[in-house]
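Re: beginner question about structure tokens

> Can someone show what the tokenized structure looks like for a real chain? I only ever see the sequence side.

Sure, here's an example I had lying around. Input first:
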Amino acid sequence: MSKRKVRSTRGASQLLQRVTCKERQLRDNYVPTPSRSGTSLEERLAMSSNQFESNERLSLVDSDRKRLVAEEIFRTEVRQSLQPSMTRSQRVLSFLNSNLGLWLLSALFVTGLSTAYSAWSTRATAKRVAEESLRRLDFEIEHRMECLSVLDDGIITFTQLETAKGALSGTNAARADVGDLGEFMPIFIEFKGRSLFSLIWEQQKLVPVSEQAALEIPLEQVRNLASAFDWMVMHAPVGDEDSKWRVQPEKESELKNMLSRILAKRWVRKAQLLDFAQTPATSSTSISTATR
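And the corresponding structure tokens:
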């Protein structure tokens, strides 16, 4: 029996040696086959190892970054605690020197400059318009004063009388069968239909304050001048020439005084101001006898 055991033990030992040798040969002759994804097992293991090491480095970098940020915050707090406290003016200057402060200053400067230029441009335009309006009013009022001056010429024609009425009211009276009775025409068409009173009133608003009081009396006299046309009486009826008209003798001094108080230096020439009564009468054209 002992011999059998010895033989079986030897056989098992020899079999184990043959299996071990076979495994060694298989291991030495082993060639790794690629996986379905095209990467061998060893390569995948190496990639996993590299990724792990990269994650380790990233985690170390993040931790270092946080530590550095904390250190900078601490340094800033220490510097601020060591610096003396800033006054109000220093804080204001510090804010103005910041990015936000500089942006606000530039925005305010640009906005203020634009607003100032717009206001200046508007005032300059309004001033030019007012000066032009004042100049046109001066010419128009002076023209109408010349038309009214015939009332103090003594005997005038019916056409001259109607022309003076048109200068006062702004438009000529008319009849359906003959048309306009007077020959008044404004210098500027935009003043047609406007009374002399409205023109002087508008001019009073445009002249300097120091000159406004001087126009109060002309305004009052122009308002009353309409009644002066009732003082005109026929001197000679219409014939081969136009009918003749004159102011009532008892009203002559009153009309002369009214016309002289209407005058203003800015409207009439110096020669007219010195002797208004000597202004030459405007020429008239006779109209049909049916109009008289």
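Each token stands for a local structural state, so reading them left to right follows the chain. The first strand starts at residue 156 and ends at 157.
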